[in-house]
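Supplementary Data S3. Sequence and structure tokens for construct A.
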Amino acid sequence: MGYAPEEDRRHIIVQEVRYYALPADAVYELPPYPRRQRRWEYEVSKACFTLAAVSCLIWAALVLWPTPPDVQLKHWKVIGINIDSKEEGRSIIPVVHLNISLDVILKIRNRNFAGVFYDSLNVDILYRGSELGDAKLKGGHIVARGTVEVPAVLNLEAREILENASELIVDVAHRKVPLTMRTRLIGAVDFVALQPHVDVTFSCDVVFDPVDKLVLKEDCGLDI
């Protein structure tokens, strides 16, 4: 076995590897390893954030923009009516005295996802735009998405009618007397510290027969 010539041995490089012993209790902090977020994880995170934001907006809309309660006239009945058209020598203009008693049931439905407190229910009775009388009903509470029925008996006694006396006499003769019932509900939506105001007016036009005490026509709806 021979040896390489001297000129060939000059190109051989010997690397010396040294090992160092570390203390047993030594603690070294390594730099954080940059973790690449996968594409699908990013998309899922983005979708969850969008869903949460939309849910918050919907909930805020339900609270800050409450839906007015739905008011309906469930029952309307003329209990008694008496119309006296004697002039009594006062003038040539006819004077009509009206006695009327109405049995009414209002149906109120809360469409909100929170309860509604209403302070009062004001009911006005009108004949051809002229107010005959009014009644104020006691307030109450409607649970979320709940419905209540509010009964009321409206009595108008010895109501003197001058402005539309002639029309009323003709309507009675034709057995078609138009009346308007206007109901106003004032309250608030009950939601923790926030209580958005609620004010809704409901009108119902009714034509009834004063002889048979029957409702001939009914047209109801919210006043916008």
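Construct B, processed identically:
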Amino acid sequence: MSQSLFAATGLAVCIALAVHMVLPYRARIRVDAWVSGLRAMVSGLLTRFTRWRNQRRNSRTAAQEAERAIRRARESALHDVRDSRVDGAWSGNVYRPKSFEKPRKPH
């Protein structure tokens, strides 16, 4: 199956090259420009697709890393060195210990 596919592809390429050699000069220039434009368009589409995919993967990875960092911060804040009680409050992803709410000492 694959051998016949390769043979058919080779035959098609040979026929296309033979037709290209038979064309007049101006027609050859037009065909070459068309093929060059088609190649540039396909290359641009492939580049945009791979960039889009990489950007999507990177944003997903960044979101996962942010979630892990927030989770680590919450877990480390919950485990106080003196005791295991929670002595503070969460406001979104910010932990505010109650020790910060004490009045300041006058200097």
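Residues 74 and 95 are 7 Å apart (CA to CA). The longest helix spans residues 25-78.
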